[in-house]
């Protein structure tokens, strides 16, 4: 099954190398495809690690082990397998991950616990240990790869390579942050996973790095949805090599902490939005802006209820300013709302205000806006000052085709 | 837009008249369609009333008033408008409902509070009072209608008329229960609502009738889903005229209480399943049976997570025994589960047991089962003895066509 490149795709950005990060890729041949599918990233000694993982109760061994490894706060390598999620594979799946950790640790002379492993692809088939072992050996010997090569190698049903870059000044020292990500939805019988990795040469203490990642995740990765289906393998890791010449950032009082946090959030937001732009069948990128909620968290929940509603998503696919469906989604969110204070608008034009259709509502500019690829949907609840932005895509025949028409 | 009759449609059953219930229908012409769209049901004096309503926080005036009326426990009439939901219409919508209550109360000589009103159709347009007034006057003068006429008149985008019947013996007295329902999903820019009505000649005290309805709803209407989008107007009402000759049922100790409760649940289950059978774009009816949960409520939540997953629904549309997607849905449900105790099967064949694919799994009978229209999906969590059954339909191109391709 060849997927057309998403109409919302962006070209891969210019991204500088990161001191202390070496990328390599090779063919483990997890699937019968003609490209690298095993990515190996070596990290310099002392690299700080932070990570966030799926909340699925059926998470893969990679995720279970990753959670333990993040508590250690240090990493020397990352291995990503594309084509097999190794989820729901019991002890055999866990053995396959531990074998990769051991082989890599022996290669670079570190502890197995410092080797992070991610896998994405089909569920229920243990990762074949022979393919992993040979692929990993090939990767150790491979030429150094670039960011776009690595972003391509970690993909499965992704239709374009996804990367983002930011920099920050820590005093006089400029630090770089480069991120790559994969994910778009699911394809029979694969379950796509969102795997994201951010690399930086900044020096950041692991516990504080984890705090920064948690905060960034709350307003970036946790604010996107394609189809509301949570993967068993979602993983975002941040690696900070500390090669840049500045005092270690270990609290909000550290010089440059604010700048670094802003750059990290910036990269995370760009990566998160790229996943939505590659959403299965997506033809429109939708910004759902919720204001006037009782809290920011409440606003996010309302935003996700709207963004996950198949009726809102199909209305936008049909370029239909159907604000009645938005009313429905707000009503089902279960968050404090009052029908008579609710306002809804598209592309900067209010269609309904304070619980009533706008009297002289002109749908012409709204219809024009909905013909575009970037949609603005605004909801004001009129209850308080909580606000959030959630990003999603529309629901089209393409989603059904990808997930129902093609068989495993 | 003409919709083809659902491939899962059932023919309308034989249903007897109910003593104390008189059906009439007329054309209010809420939309430009060639059929009756205002249904008027007159109920004999002393009819007991119970009802359950949408939990939407953006509910219509009909729902708000209905909640108050149910507390009174008595009804003399029901008026159903099809083609306009009268939701999100503020004080003008409420005035339209109150006008209908007043006109009907004057006609039959009762209190306005004894007149129940439901409306279904487009959101955001106040119900036109002139059409309602003329339609209602025409209904008062109309010939007596049958159950199938009424079931057709309350429909909007429904593709077939939906009714269910049961009887129960209260001592030596046989009582009848007849129900009609409408609902299938949504169509631009209408938001379909699920409106269900059960009529019986049994004599039941209103508070106990409400208890019975709440219990029946928990295992019937609250166990179906088409697309997870909750309407602003969902309403189920039960009217008990008390014309049958038996002692009033007012507690579980009353003779015949068990039999009546079973018959009521039976009618509610049949009506609920009929809505799923008319689910937008549905090609398969799916029984999701969850066992081994820590509680029945937990089982229901897991069942709904599976039934609402677009990936599970598209897999079944594609006749793909993709149990990896079921693992995903269990994992995201947030209920107690353990990957290594989870079992999943289709059509009576286990594909995975205790967290591992079944070694000698033969997909042939499963593939054959999935080609049918009635699908059995079983999930055992291996945690406890909680169980539930949830009913849903698959997600097909038909759903997208109905909700995105056609414009308002």
TrEMBL record, chains A, B:
Keyword vocabulary terms for this entry: Acyltransferase, Amino-acid biosynthesis, Arginine biosynthesis, Autocatalytic cleavage, Cytoplasm, Multifunctional enzyme, Transferase
Coiled-coil region: none
Localization annotation: Cytoplasm
UniProt site positions, description: Involved in the stabilization of negative charge on the oxyanion by the formation of the oxyanion hole: 120-121
Superkingdom as given in the UniProt entry: Bacteria
One of the record's GO molecular function terms: L-glutamate N-acetyltransferase activity, acting on acetyl-L-ornithine as donor
Pathway linked to the protein: Amino-acid biosynthesis; L-arginine biosynthesis; L-ornithine and N-acetyl-L-glutamate from L-glutamate and N(2)-acetyl-L-ornithine (cyclic): step 1/1; Amino-acid biosynthesis; L-arginine biosynthesis; N(2)-acetyl-L-ornithine from L-glutamate: step 1/4
Site for Cleavage, residues: 192-193
Active site: 193 (nucleophile)
List of residues binding substrate: 156, 182, 193, 280, 403, 408
Name of one Pfam family that matches: ArgJ
Top-level enzyme category: transferase
Reaction(s) this enzyme catalyzes, per UniProt: N(2)-acetyl-L-ornithine + L-glutamate = N-acetyl-L-glutamate + L-ornithine; L-glutamate + acetyl-CoA = N-acetyl-L-glutamate + CoA + H(+)
InterPro entries per record: Arg_biosynth_ArgJ (IPR002813), ArgJ-like_dom_sf (IPR016117), ArgJ_beta_C (IPR042195)
CDD domains xref list: OAT (cd02152)
EC number in record: 2.3.1.35, 2.3.1.1
Subunit composition and interactions: Heterotetramer of two alpha and two beta chains.
Cited function: Catalyzes two activities which are involved in the cyclic version of arginine biosynthesis: the synthesis of N-acetylglutamate from glutamate and acetyl-CoA as the acetyl donor, and of ornithine by transacetylation between N(2)-acetylornithine and glutamate.
Family: Belongs to the ArgJ family.
Protein name: Arginine biosynthesis bifunctional protein ArgJ
The organism of origin for this protein: Erythrobacter rubeus
